[in-house]
Amino acid sequence: MKRVLLDECLPAQLKRDLVDHQVKTVRNQGWSGIKNGELLALMEFRFDVFLTVDRNLEYQHNTQDIPVGIIVLEAFQNSIKYIRPLVPEILTALNHIRPGQIIRIKGQLKPR
Question: Percentage of residues in the chain with pLDDT exceeding 90?
């Protein structure tokens, strides 16, 4: 079981889909509006994985030195309609991710 933090740009209902993991949102933690660098520092010792749609995170911060894994979701929109189909891949990634590792999961990038 991983301790997962959902970025504030992800739908909170995604928490229910990530079974067997302890999932909190940035809003639950009272960390809304905090920039990613500070957010990653706050996560230390509290979370194992950061789940986000921020594709530039690894270019803005030295992610190899952070003590959490990062899963970046790439989808057409960050609505549950486009994120929910990625859940099986997210669950697989959660079982294998290591601290400092970034896993990108690509979903539907164009509307149907």
Answer: 64
Which pairs from 51-59 meet CB under 8 Å and 24+ separation? 51/4, 51/5, 51/6, 51/7, 51/10, 51/14, 51/90, 52/7, 52/9, 52/10, 53/7, 53/9, 53/10, 53/78, 54/7, 54/9, 57/102, 58/102
Report the b/e string of 4-36 with b at 16+ CB within 10 A. Answer: bbbbbebbeebbebbeebebbbbeebebeeeeb
The tokens describing 25, both together, are 């949102």
* Burial of 90 (C-beta count, 10 Å sphere; 0-12/13-18/19+): buried
Query: Above 90 in pLDDT, residue 94?
Result: yes
pLDDT in tens, 19-59: 999 999 999 999 999 987 788 888 988 999 999 988 766 66
Residue with tokens 């270019």: 59
